[in-house]
Amino acid sequence: MAIAFTKRAAEEVKKIIESQNLDPNTFVRTVIVGGGCSGMQYTLGFDTKYDPLVDARYEEDGVAIVADKKFALFLDGTKIDFVDTPSAKGFSIDNPKFPAGAGCAGCGH
Hints:
The protein is of the alpha/beta class. The protein has one domain: Hypothetical Protein Aq_1857, Chain: A. The protein has helices spanning 7-19, 69-75; strands spanning 3-5, 27-34, 41-47, 55-60, 63-68, 78-84, 89-94. The strands form 2 sheets. A 4-stranded mixed sheet has the order 3-2-5-4. It is globular, with a radius of gyration of 14 Å.
């Protein structure tokens, strides 16, 4: 599986979909928007348009996540979690292939 939700993240996605009365066919779309010194940059959003010719679809704990097939190799092994601490609240993305701070070789990190 290329992309997976933790149980906590999947529960949070379900709560958002329900509380916002989104279409039952809504899924999370993951997009890589660039990289650099801080590593890969991602966006997460809700979507209902799925094209099996260009999209890869994964299911975890009853929640679907979709990414363009061109990103699948870069996202393989990625885990999406939800954190709620005094210092941070939101989704976090852990991609073991591209850890934070490993975006460019010339940065000296």
